[in-house]
């Protein structure tokens, strides 16, 4: 499929960018997308939750009442979970929520996400650009020219560009990544995907394997 190449003012340059059908026009695999997004979100969890259990509570170990004759249940420790201030039964412990997925599945998921965006005409291709210095207003002007200033957007660079990255850092709803950092969650979380011409080769080489 072919997409018109725009400049940073939102005007057509008269050139067309060819997007590989094997990356941008496949039949989406919903389950692969689900698994990759699930893994991404799982990896964001710190897993540092912790509740004190019976053995970790500070308190007396004396038997709090006699065994028989009270008319109530036996009780041997104030740290028992049935008492206020006692330990928690099977409380959360620190753990790693991450899990593994094979590379082919993750590749399929990213291609599926890009195909969904391409089908919805949410992908823009613009010529490579840079800024002389980091300036948020310069990035806002680019987004306004493309008509996406009020929408969640993802800009994909071909190579690392410090000034473009720093210019976007203060803008809510905008994320800038290199082609090698592209993730299924990032693609689906954005309303629009803006691909710089220089990123196309990297995306297709990474996902066409």
From TrEMBL:
Quote the InterPro entries the UniProt record gives: Ribosomal_uL4, Ribosomal_uL4-like, Ribosomal_uL4_dom_sf
Q: Which residues form a coiled coil?
A: none
Name a single GO cellular component: ribosome
Q: Which GO terms describe its biological process?
A: translation
Q: Name one GO molecular function term.
A: structural constituent of ribosome
- Gene3D superfamilies from the UniProt entry: 3.40.1370.10
Q: What are the start and end residues of every segment in region (Disordered)?
A: 45-77
> Does the entry feature the keyword RNA-binding, yes or no?
yes
What's in the keyword line of the UniProt record? Answer: Ribonucleoprotein, Ribosomal protein, RNA-binding, rRNA-binding
The record describes the protein's role as: One of the primary rRNA binding proteins, this protein initially binds near the 5'-end of the 23S rRNA. It is important during the early stages of 50S assembly. It makes multiple contacts with different domains of the 23S rRNA in the assembled 50S subunit and ribosome. Forms part of the polypeptide exit tunnel.
Quaternary structure per UniProt?
Part of the 50S ribosomal subunit.
Q: What is the similarity comment for this entry?
A: Belongs to the universal ribosomal protein uL4 family.
Q: What is this protein called?
A: Large ribosomal subunit protein uL4
What species was this sequence derived from? Salegentibacter mishustinae
